[in-house]
Write a structure and sequence with these properties.
Elements: E1 12-15, E2 21-26, H1 32-38, H2 44-51, H3 60-66, E3 74-80, E4 90-98, E5 104-111, H4 120-134, E6 139-145, H5 149-157, E7 161-164, E8 172-178
Parallel strand pairs: 5-6
Antiparallel strand pairs: 1-2, 2-3, 3-4, 4-5, 6-8, 7-8
Organism: Stenotrophomonas humi
GO molecular function: acyltransferase activity, transferring groups other than amino-acyl groups
Keywords: Acyltransferase, Transferase
Length: 181
């Protein structure tokens, strides 16, 4: 009788065109210290584009919140070396969270400059869309800096539409994917 080599839910081996092998998987509490240690691998542009300000380090509080998502309303995935959580260097983080009282979820993706342009952001975004569809949400959206052209193009290529940011914040746009259609 043949045994099937099945991965746990939300786990996937990812081989980048560069040859680098990563494991995409749900974030674990043990990922906090390596994530904080690897934060320097994310370039200032990536961090500024995601946090909309210069951030030198990932605070203990932010790492704690990120590594303990509420499974009913959030998903957080990492792309890391195929080593045990707590030992693996984390090269990318993707998160989606349902906005309380709505059928919408907000996403954010942060990919290390060493892994940019390898298709990892696209694969992580597909997983976030799959999660949002599985939660029967109406829309998934992300706020992106106007100058973050790669992320804007990626979102558009997956069907997201650019809309003015509701707050009117200069330099910020919202990319929205209508899930019901």
């Amino acid at each position: 009788m043949a045994t099937r080599n099945r991965m746990p839910p939300w786990h996937e081996h990812f081989k980048a065109p560069s040859g680098r092998e990563l494991l995409i998987r749900p974030i674990r509490p043990e990922d906090g210290p390596p994530l904080q240690g690897a934060f320097a691998l994310f370039g200032p542009e990536e961090v500024r584009d995601k946090f909309l300000q210069s951030v030198e380090a990932l605070s203990d509080e932010t790492a704690q919140r990120l590594t303990h998502p509420n499974p009913k309303t959030e998903i957080a995935l990492v792309a890391a070396e195929p080593l045990p959580p707590g030992e693996a260097v984390v090269g990318a983080v993707a998160r989606a969270s349902i906005i309380p009282g709505t059928r919408d979820a907000e996403y954010a993706i942060l990919v290390s400059r060493f892994l940019a342009g390898q298709g990892l952001g696209r694969q992580l975004m597909r997983k976030l869309v799959k999660w949002a569809r599985g939660k029967y949400l109406d829309r998934l959206y992300g706020d992106i800096a106007e100058q973050n052209e790669p992320m804007l193009q990626l979102a558009a290529s997956l069907g997201f539409k650019q809309v003015p940011h509701p707050s009117g914040t200069p330099g910020l746009v919202r990319m929205v994917l209508e899930l019901a259609s």
